[in-house]
């Protein structure tokens, strides 16, 4: 059963096309990862889904109902964790969660119980009476999540919930996504960290410049680049490297530099490692390390766009 159906969604800000005719269907029980670099259009899609922004064209069905006609029903039955923290500094952790849960329609003892459950779920039960100003970034993020899940929504949408937090809170959040899914919620998870979607998502949509450029399980996405390999060289200096000459080596598809690292995308079958190494020795550039790796979602993105996921 489909929980979300996005049809030809289109949104522009002035002349800037933020979402360019996107189609996505998400089924019950999925953890759907929306992966893309900053500015790709992820938050715009989420903000349209949660009713904060109006679309220019297209339609969205959530929980089998049209968003335009049933926004009240939809708002009550989904939980949105926004990219920008939406918590009140002047309310305690408990009061924050209770406030949001009441907006979602909970009342009385159910409101109280579910508020505590949500705080316990994100590991903040002991902090229920404290104010967010004493919290670390990761704790605030977790409180932000508690606010969106207390009413046990069928669909939970999380917009980059792990940006800029400590590894411990990050792991906690990733684990809680899995647990929420096991408890029956369908999840949409946006991020620009490919490791996260690899670990927790059942299906992934890769988005760039407002377009969905690839979609599938991580195995399906990696199959796009199975005939490719990535050669990474750590060198002592990159100033004398001529990118054209490297690109002219048989089999080489693209070359990228980053500080002392040279990333070469190449056909898997072509035996060109000797020629690549020769290029560096001929130009008196010493190689400190060289590794050749199988594709991951980063290489998928690189192959499809010619750019890295993170700059
Ligand atoms: P992401 O969440 O993937 O980083 P966004 O959806 O925030 O990307 O942004 C997509 C594009 O739309 C970007 O070019 C961004 O600058 C632009 N954009 C987003 N929100 C607004 C807004 N409120 N007004 C104008 N431009 C916006
Ligand atoms: Mg965003």
Automatic annotation (TrEMBL):
<dbReference type="GO" id="GO:0005524">
    <property type="term" value="F:ATP binding"/>
</dbReference>
<dbReference type="InterPro" id="IPR003439">
    <property type="entry name" value="ABC_transporter-like_ATP-bd"/>
</dbReference>
<dbReference type="Pfam" id="PF00005">
    <property type="entry name" value="ABC_tran"/>
</dbReference>
<dbReference type="InterPro" id="IPR017871">
    <property type="entry name" value="ABC_transporter-like_CS"/>
</dbReference>
<feature type="domain" description="ABC transporter">
    <location>
        <begin position="4"/>
        <end position="234"/>
    </location>
</feature>
<keyword id="KW-0067">ATP-binding</keyword>
<dbReference type="InterPro" id="IPR027417">
    <property type="entry name" value="P-loop_NTPase"/>
</dbReference>
<protein>
    <submittedName>
        <fullName>ABC-2 type transport system ATP-binding protein</fullName>
    </submittedName>
</protein>
<dbReference type="InterPro" id="IPR003593">
    <property type="entry name" value="AAA+_ATPase"/>
</dbReference>
<dbReference type="GO" id="GO:0016887">
    <property type="term" value="F:ATP hydrolysis activity"/>
</dbReference>
<keyword id="KW-0547">Nucleotide-binding</keyword>
């Amino acid at each position: 059963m489909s929980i979300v159906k996005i049809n030809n969604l289109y949104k522009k800000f002035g002349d800037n096309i933020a979402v360019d005719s996107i189609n996505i269907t998400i089924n019950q029980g999925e953890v759907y990862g929306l992966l893309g670099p900053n500015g790709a259009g992820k938050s715009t899609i989420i903000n349209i889904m949660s009713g904060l922004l109006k679309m220019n064209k297209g339609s969205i069905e959530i929980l089998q109902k049209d968003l335009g006609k049933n926004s009240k029903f939809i708002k009550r039955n989904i939980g949105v964790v926004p990219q920008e923290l939406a918590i009140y500094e002047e309310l305690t952790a408990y009061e924050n969660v209770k406030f949001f849960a009441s907006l979602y329609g909970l009342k009385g003892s159910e409101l109280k119980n579910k508020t505590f459950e949500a705080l316990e779920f994100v590991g903040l039960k002991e902090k229920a009476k404290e104010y967010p100003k004493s919290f670390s970034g990761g704790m605030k993020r977790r409180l932000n999540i508690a606010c969106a899940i207390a009413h046990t929504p069928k669909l939970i949408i999380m917009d980059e919930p792990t940006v800029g937090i400590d590894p411990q809170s990050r792991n906690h959040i990733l684990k809680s996504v899995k647990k929420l899914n096991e408890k029956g919620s369908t999840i949409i998870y946006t991020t620009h960290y490919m490791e996260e979607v690899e670990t927790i998502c059942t299906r992934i949509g890769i988005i760039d410049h407002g377009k969905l450029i690839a979609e599938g399980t991580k195995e399906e996405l990696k199959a796009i680049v199975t005939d490719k390999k990535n050669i990474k060289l750590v060198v002592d200096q990159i100033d004398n490297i001529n990118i054209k000459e490297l690109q002219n080596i048989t089999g080489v598809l693209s070359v990228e530099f980053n500080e002392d690292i040279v990333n070469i995308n190449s056909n898997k079958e072509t035996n060109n490692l000797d020629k690549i190494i020769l290029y560096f020795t001929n130009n008196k550039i010493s190689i400190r390390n060289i590794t050749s790796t199988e594709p991951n979602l980063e290489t998928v993105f690189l192959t499809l766009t010619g750019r890295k996921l993170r700059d």
